[in-house]
Structure to design on (225 residues):
């Protein structure tokens, strides 16, 4: 089955603390994975794609095929990082499967 | 133009009304999508158009009727909706190719907040 699991509904940290949002996937082929972010009252935006191995707004995510994970990390959280984060798996045939999302709350 | 636009932003309709949601992109993308998003939930795929042809219908009730007049436009016609259809309706687009970097990335519009009374 093609599935994305985000085990934490809410992650609350203080400003400056490290952040790790967990994402595990189930997929038989070679996965294409993404992180999307939805700030309050804004559109869903693409944050990261695993294939480019880039860092956006200080966030990074590494694909670990052995652990079937694609965790999102940032060493020092900022208040403006507070948002809903979705991990998504491209399953072919133009379909994206989203995880249930993790709300990140960064307090001052 | 690198955005997906959607109109209207908000829509309130009765259960006997007929209305339409509109989506537009000018990025040359050849795949377009409709999603439904309930509060605090991930987007749920409804329909996919690829090269202006309906390629995926995720068993959506017939009271939702998609239409793709051309490669830049996507409509969702609504008729006889139920209160449980109240949600944020998102449009997205992607390059639409079957391979190559960036083919699968989807870009989302701001959504239409629909309330059915």
């Amino acid at each position: 089955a093609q599935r994305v699991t985000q085990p934490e509904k809410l992650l609350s940290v203080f400003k400056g603390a490290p952040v790790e949002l967990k994402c595990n996937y189930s997929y038989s082929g070679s996965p294409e994975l993404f992180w999307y972010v939805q700030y309050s009252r804004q559109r869903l935006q693409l944050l990261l794609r695993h294939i480019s191995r880039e860092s956006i707004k200080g966030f990074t995510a590494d694909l670990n095929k052995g652990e079937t994970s694609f965790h999102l990390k940032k060493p020092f959280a900022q208040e403006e990082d507070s948002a809903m984060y979705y991990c998504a798996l491209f399953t072919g045939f133009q379909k994206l499967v989203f995880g249930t999302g993790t709300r990140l709350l960064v307090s001052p | 133009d690198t955005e997906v636009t959607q109109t209207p932003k908000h829509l309130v309709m009765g259960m006997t009304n007929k209305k339409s949601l509109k989506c537009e992109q000018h990025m040359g993308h050849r795949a377009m999508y409709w999603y439904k998003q309930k509060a605090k939930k991930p987007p749920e795929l409804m329909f996919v158009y690829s090269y202006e042809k309906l390629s995926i219908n995720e068993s959506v009730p017939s009271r939702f009727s998609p239409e793709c007049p051309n490669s830049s436009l996507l409509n969702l016609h609504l008729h006889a909706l139920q209160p449980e259809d109240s949600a944020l309706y998102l449009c997205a687009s992607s390059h639409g190719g079957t391979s190559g970097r960036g083919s699968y990335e989807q870009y989302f519009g701001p959504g239409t907040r629909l309330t059915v009374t």
